[in-house]
Amino acid sequence: MNKAKLKSIIVRFSPLITVGVFILIWYIAAIAVDIELILPRPALVFKELLALISGKTFWTAVGGTLSRSFTGFAISFALAMILAVAGFAIKPIHRAFSPLVIISRAIPTMSVILLSLIWLTSQTSPILISSLIMFPMFYSDFYSALNNIDKGVIDMAKLYKVGAKDIVTRLYIPNILPSVLDSVRSGISFNVKIVIAAEVLAQTRQSMGISMQISRVMLDTASLLAWTAAAVAISYALELIVELIKRFAVKWRRA
Amino acid sequence: MKDIVLKDVSKSYDGLTVVEGFNLTLEAGKITCLLGVSGVGKTTILNIIGGLAGSQGSVSGVPERISYIFQNPTLLPNMTVEGNLDFVLRSQIKDKEERKKIIAEAIQNVGLSEFAKAYPYQLSAGMAQRVSMARAFVYPSELILMDEPFRGLDVATKARLLEYFLALWQKSKKTVLLVTHNIDEAVLLSDKILVLGGRPARISAEYFLNSDKFARKLSDKDAAEVFGKIYDWFAAVTPKS
């Protein structure tokens, strides 16, 4: 095997190699600690994960967490998109919203979580938390995406008297799509993390958050790590789906 | 097609008068060049004619539909060469098949048939400018406004682009206003060259080139003479630093 071929194999399988190295370090650390309560071995966590997956409770909890994540995500996405478009088209709207966006970005996440726990039920507060935390990120990303469209191209479309519908569907939407999908990809897994954290604090029934909390209370570290692994896998799968959509939808970009 | 006439046109930006009492006639079906150094007000005059900048005075004869060729090809990055032409034609020609035929011919005219399905990032600067040219000529306009369209291109690419431009223009005979600071482009393409100078901008000299521009060379007697006169004029009026 020549050097170039070896290099290409390493590059191709580098994510798997990284995961392998991580598990190896974990295994060595678990042997060194040798206390299951503090750091169980990877095999035990994997066994626990298989046991979780085979039970109905796991899927109910995952379904509950994902439905809250998607609801919060959809609300913040829609709101941010509408306001970014309005702010882009009418600059005073953007100027009026800028301080609100800055403030909402600066509010400590924990304050949002605690306040929403006071105001709402345990089922709905994770949705509000997710929406409030994701909104400023989406708004800034979408507004920048709109502003970064080449002004020359926009002027060209107007000079050639291209119809408004074509300007929106053939110019604006395709040109902001890469940035929007980048934003969605990075936001989607972050959003799952936020919702799980909110579920832990709100003690939301049928959720991954409460399942993790129960594992902690029961001092079942293997189960807690199994839930964590499940959350990581779900987030990774969601990011992968968005990445595949992006590859399909944005063929025109330089590779 | 009608002549485009500017009478007593004035334009100021933030109190700075760029154009004042300016008169100009663009003859229908001819290529007129506004030649001048950077910042003299050439683009301002082009923008006034194109309706991109308001002005005082009278501007008449400007057709409703105008094509543009700028220094930057301003192609949609998300569309292929065909798609970019289709983008400006959709609102003008409703029949899809007819559009397809016209676009294929326009792409062939600029020698890019093999690149019809290519995206802008896959084109060289010269090729992208050829697409911009094809778009300007395929659009059903009577006037083409060109603002430094060959700027930044190497000599060989520019020479090919000038050939493509003349070949396209020969078929359509649209009225063209070329704004440039390059004497060679002006001499090779134009029927009339208006040299702009001063502030506010005024026409300092006017040259007519009657030779066949499809066979014109810079070494031809009349072209070389006009080139020399303009060059000497610029050299004489430019302050020595």
Sequence-ordered SSE layout with sheet pairings:
The complex is a heterodimer of chains A (255) and B (241).
Chain A: H1 3-12, H2 14-33, H3 42-53, H4 56-89, H5 91-106, H6 109-119, H7 125-147, H8 151-159, H9 164-202, H10 208-217, H11 221-249
Chain B: E1 4-13, E2 16-26, E3 31-35, H1 42-50, E4 56-60, E5 66-70, H2 81-89, H3 96-109, H4 125-138, E6 143-147, H5 155-172, E7 175-180, H6 183-189, E8 192-197, E9 202-208, H7 221-237
Parallel strand pairs in B: 3-7, 3-8, 5-6, 6-7
Antiparallel strand pairs in B: 1-2, 1-4, 8-9
Helix pairs in contact in B: 2-3, 2-4, 3-4, 4-5, 6-7
Order of helices and strands of chain A: HHHHHHHHHHH
Shape-level CATH architecture of the largest domain in chain A: Orthogonal Bundle
Strand content of chain A: under 5%
- Most residues in contact: chain pair: A-B, 20 and 23 residues
Work out the helicity level of chain A: over 70%
Explain this structure.
The complex is a heterodimer of chains A (255) and B (241). Chain A is mainly alpha-helical. Chain A folds into two domains: 3-33; 45-249, MetI-like fold (Orthogonal Bundle). Chain A has eleven helices and no strands. The longest helix of chain A has 39 residues, at 164-202. Chain B is an alpha/beta fold. Chain B has a domain at 77-144. Chain B has seven helices and nine strands; from the N terminus they run E-E-E-H-E-E-H-H-H-E-H-E-H-E-E-H. Chain B has a six-stranded mixed beta sheet, sandwiched between helices. Chain B has a three-stranded antiparallel beta sheet with strand order 2-1-4, covered by helices on one side. In chain B, strand 6, helix 5 (155-172) and strand 7 form a beta-alpha-beta unit. The longest helix of chain B is centred in the C-terminal third of the chain and has 18 residues, at 155-172. In chain B, 42% of the residues are buried. The interface between A and B is medium-sized, with 20 and 23 residues.
